[in-house]
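Researcher: We're teaching a course module on how sequence relates to structure. For the next exercise, students receive a sequence and then see the predicted structure as tokens, so they can try to spot secondary structure elements on their own. Here is the exercise chain.
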Amino acid sequence: MKKEDQQSALKETVITIRGLHKSFGGLPVLQGIDLDLFKGENFVVLGRSGSGKSVLIKIIAGLLKPDAGTVNVLGQHVDLLNDKELQSLRLRLGFIFQSSALYDSMTIRENLEFSMVRNFKTLSAKEVDHAVYEVLDAVGLKDKINAMPADLSGGQVKRIGIARTLILHPEIMLYDEPTAGLDPITCTEIIELINEVKTRFNTSSIIITHDLTCAKETGDRIAMLQDGHFTRLGNFGEVFDTDDIRIKRFFDYNFIK
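Model: And here is the predicted structure for the students to work with:
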């Protein structure tokens, strides 16, 4: 057994995917995905737009059904769960949408409280209040507690989206293009926050992106998704140590302007 295989065998796996296939209207998108996410790991999935990156994490969260293959999340086969079981599992997952999906008519406090009250009905007002301040402190936005989403910058909206997920203390974070549409400085701040979340909340994460700076700075392991499957897997250097012209162009577009 190779050294890296021995090390992997000693780690706790929180997501295991084998032979995952998914098509839409006869068009194959995922064609045999195998993936292991280890506890405490940031796993980055890179790929061009339309390559199936977001489809992958929607299947993990039970938002889409696979056509074939197995998806085991925290010891449960996602595609075999009923609605109640799936809802219970989703409380252990944090899904960060590209849009952050905040309620425009609610203040930041109300957005965060809504997540808590909807899912944990027995909590006291004091416990909810403490949780709100804890996550706002984690994302550096305590001063925005009474602001409306429309009053926030794009980067602040992303942070509040992360805070709204963290308030439920998920074990796994699923980030869908967390730096999309942000300026370079704000991207750096979000990247730093992703790494801080992993350390402070002891999360495991899958990060979907086509931003190589995000991938390089957050990813413990990186996978390149092409033609429906992972064509490269390893650390940043290993993934891009290749003569594959498609991967070289991907690198050049991100880093050579």
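Model: If you want an answer key for the exercise: The longest strand covers residues 13-24. Strands lie at 13-24, 27-38, 42-46, 68-73, 76-77, 93-96, 172-176, 204-209, 221-226, 229-234.
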